[in-house]
Description:
Elements lengths: L8 H17 L6 H13 L4 E5 L2 H11 L7 E4 L5 H9 L3 E4 L11 H7 L4 E5 L10 H11 L2 E5 L7 E2 L2 E2 L6 E5 L13 E5 L2 H10 L21 H11 L2 H18 L6 E2 L7 E2 L5 E4 L3 H10 L22 E2 L5 H9 E4 L7 H13 L1
Parallel strand pairs: 2-3, 2-4, 3-13, 4-5, 5-8
Antiparallel strand pairs: 1-9, 6-7, 6-11, 8-9, 10-12, 12-14
Bound molecules: pyridoxal-5'-phosphate.
Amino acid sequence: MNDFSREPEELIQIEIANCERVIRSGWYILGKELAEFESSWAQYSGCRFAVGLANGMDAIECGLRILGIAPGDEVITTPMTAFATVLAILRAGATPVLADVDLETGLLSLESAARCLTKKTRAIVPVHLYGRPLNLPAFHDFCTTAGIYLIEDCAQAHGAKWKNIQVGSLGHVGAWSFYPTKNLGAFGDAGALTCNSEKLADQARILRNYGQSVRYYHPVQGFNSRLDEMQAAILSARLMWLDRFTQKRQAIAQTYYSKIANENVELLRAPTNEETHVHHLFVLRSKNRETFMQQLQNDGVETLIHYPVPVHKRASCIGIKVDPNGLEHAECHAETCFSIPCHPGMTAEEVETVWRSVNAL
Ligand SMILES: Cc1ncc(COP(=O)(O)O)c(C=O)c1O
């Protein structure tokens, strides 16, 4: 699904030079490298501010906390996401409420989200899942009408856009993960929060550093979630290659859309002209997914399932609040979905092996 050993040599040389610069600087936490990456990331993602954090889960929790979400508040999100999305809501002390997904895409359905609204709802955390941008103006209008905050989980969607709107730029907060497998990945854990409010950005900077405003002064109880200089320097190097990597993912996805033809397999809806999809994952659906996954494995192709168990069926979340109409689409998606390789290190031959293997059954 990923092969990090295929990092282009030219990029490796820049990464080595950046790491050497950090080592020789003698400054490893909250320094120039972070400031530089934050400024580049804000610019790239179309936001005024970026605040580097230790990982993507912290970015969601931090976003909720700076918006004042607290115990007793309900936050709507999707059951079809990394567990971290829901865990971050729980860690902020709020109550997650799971809405169903759209069957064509696997992404959060606004219709279902509307059924989840109550007097206690304070925010929604939609996920730009698999690299596909949600209809941001529609989510924005939904939040304005309901009087709630929009926190975009952009962990899988670096560079994705709805029309010309960058994901993470329309909500009150955008939350990013730079986990190594992400479209922009560090060489360890890393994350960031983006926003357009200076006040919120300042609050996030305080929260990530124990709640410290000035040395030894702690107006709030924060946590330790700093993005270190080494990871920031790696991310600055890799950001320069992000568009090339994205174009490669998009070309692979386009090949799959044009070549995969098997009546026992369904593709998720192809991106429309409005969606700049960055194809973090390429997901298929089949009632016989085990057979397909076995066939691909026999042809030397790794596959994974994102995600086999929707959040409300995980042992630690039994009894979690859900759409009163249930989560039928999410359950169906979880039972049938599987992901085939779609990463920038793939060769044309490997891409062909994958679609031929899917078509062969
Ligand atoms: C959709 C989504 N949200 C949040 C996260 C959490 O990011 P991290 O692993 O950096 O904490 C991830 C990463 O797995 C993710 O895919």
